[in-house]
Hints:
The complex is a heterotrimer. Chain A is mostly helical.
Amino acid sequence: MQFGFSGLPAKVSGFNIYYMTRAKEYIIEKCLFFSALITVLTTIGILLVLAIEAVDFFKEVSIIDFFTDSQWTPLFSEKHFGIMSLLAGTLLTTFIAIAVALPIGLTIAVYLSEYAPKSFRKTIKPLLEVLAAVPTVVYGFFALMVVTPFLQNFIPTLSGFNALSAGIVMGIMIIPFVSSLSEDALYAVPKSLREASYGMGSTRFQTSFKVLIPAASSGITASVILAISRAIGETMIVAIAAGQIPALTLNPLEPVQTITAFIVQVSSGDVPFGSLEHKTIFAAGISLFALTFILNSISFWINKKYQQQYE
Amino acid sequence: MNNAATNRIKDKLFKYFGIVCTLIGLTVLAIFIIDILIDGVQRLDWKFITNLPSRFPEKAGILTAWTGTLWIFFLTAIIAIPLGIAAGIYLEEYSKKGRLANLLEINIANLAGVPSIIYGILGLEIFVRVLKFGGSLLAGSFTLALLILPIIIVSTREAVKAVPKTIKEASFALGATKWQTIWNQVLPAASSNIITGIILALARAVGETAPLIVIGALAYVPFVAKTPMDEFTVLPMQIFNWVSRPQHGFIINAAAAIIILLCVVFVMNGIAVYLRNRAQRKIQW
Amino acid sequence: MKTKKISVLALSAGLFFAACNSSQQNNEGTESKELSGTIQIDGSSTVYPITEAVAEEFRTVQPKVKVTIGSSGSGAGFNKFARGETDISDASRAIKDKEKDACKENNIQYLEIRVALDGIAIVVNKENTWIENITTEELKQLWEPNSTVTNWSDIRPEWPDEKIQLFGPSTAHGTYDFFTEEIVGESGASRSDYNAVSDYNVAVQGISTSKNALGYFGLAYYTENKDKLKLISVDNGNGPVFPSLETVGDGTYAPLARPLYIYVNKKSAKRKEVMEFVNFYINNAAKLSKDVGYIPLPAAEYNNSLSQLNDLSNK
């Protein structure tokens, strides 16, 4: 029997094969579409869950106060609801984390992809991926009990809870996000590009930075954005090691509280549900969502502009 | 010094820098593991692995915790992997470029940044209460699946993007349909990179505490879960619970439990890495 | 190759399911009233250790009753309790008005039972030679909002002119609420420049390594770390008293002795296994709370709770 491309006997009228494959394609496309739709549904779900309570919150606290008050003390007797101090905590720790993860992660990616022998790459890559698997609770205590005392030897003014240790440990946790995903992107660049570059006498350094990284830029940027998002949304490391009292400061040696740490503190504490104090977590949550949305949009447009040069 | 010489120096310097960076990552991992081993290895024995929780640290064990972690791992994987890969393929291959597609892309990156505890609150409302799964493994794994979905989607997209156009064009030229091209050519080519994303995503899921606490992962579960509708606990929760108890014995228990968790992760990662290596061997361009 | 892969997978799956089934306990003879069922408990992580201890002992008496305990916090616990999702709620504070309303809305009637006391200890570093006791008035001066006290000498001039390092629970915790209410006079009224912790072991670590430190937390954390910390006595107007099993239990260590509660859903209590469990709880709370570092209530109080519980079953 002759078999057509769809695996059915060609004896079956060609007419039917055509429509059967068309139908199959259509169904598959719709299934894939619904999978993608889940992400939209998730976002809608999150926004609903946050907004319903946040709206109640803003009935009692003015938005202007929310953005301009320099203190965040909803659980003290004298209540202030200024999100700026929590925001400062989030941005400070994220910045430190990225400052650690980005250069180290990218360098590792390039090194493993271009310089290291194949067998080395095969063993090291999974080992580094274990770094992403350590429970964040454990990282938090590591930052508090090991990293902070260690750093205090060099920086005597370092407070017991501080943004620096938490940021560094967060950075270490994110390294595999940057290194493994970027390295995959680099590895996938076709050999022809590499060979052309080496054929013209370039060193590995030149090839990596002038040819491969631009060619893999889409994948690399995606991994960086994923890493940044991960850092902003990280909860336990900062809750344990960065501090539990918000402070409007950019000094990494002082305790700060991030938006995420605050949310965890209140939702697992003894605050009664339905109270204004409890609703603060939804207001804080929605601010975080808005922040990441703005950051992601900005990086998206920057990426698009950069990419156009290399398409 | 001429250009060629400077370039060679830059090349060598970078090579050493690369080695240093890699060593930093590995050294931290080593310090970490040694620290935990020193604290916890004394407590590791068969009883610890098969006992139920107890108020006496010497008697307390992690049976329900590690079986719970394994359950969560498998259930979350079954839910998130097909959904994530499907969504990634759709977004990369099928959707038309345009404002809607851009918005979707930003949206997914955004979801990756939502704190895990918010996913917990979402999961509590939808899976536990509305869908009535209760505080069960099913609710927990669906919630975690949503949490890690963006990671899988992003890596699938990038993996598919990286497959050279020539492969796809050749397949179309031979008369294959879009799906046949994807299933027979693109996916196998992209599989190793997709697996990396899956490894990172599942590793995250297994280490999460906060969303599961909100859903109702319990700290004391005196039985091993037998169906996805059962209540459960997981290793990170047990660790978190023990670490804040005043009795010193519990701190040692926590360290031992961390060792077990790392072993579980290591084994899972190992299997995935083996699969990835096999997939990569076939791709040579 | 393929068979090797399949056999490895099958082996691991087999081991996994063997573990699942190995924890099934064999029936021990024939208990006269062998009960079965599930009891769902959630709430305060402070009360959790007591409830865990009770459930552990209960399992030896009624092995077929499945007791599951969460520790999502008093607030989250009440939230679930008010929706009828749990049978018993652990709480390190009394139920608040908003939560009472939520229960009413869902027709949940409950029984409030005090199960133990948590003494709050004031501790300092072992090298602190100058302080032996402190009055509640001085504590208030130290901890009130916008407090002007920064150095030890600001409290008593004979103490060193060194900056005090303060440690305490973070604001979402019952201990914080209780301490501020009893010492400062209003719940939540506290200065904000102290090291706030969620895990008191961290406070223990911090105080034991800082000579000028002072902190407050549950007595159990002092008892387990006696070698690292120094306990100071509190004077409430009747002379300085050290917190201990006796002084907290009979009320002489005041006001820093806070009660721990469980709330029982009356409808759930109609089920035999729940009634049995709560009975067991009250009967054994004195002994078991000591095991985990808390202090038993006077026997009269437990008897009172028992009779309230039995009234329920007779209705």
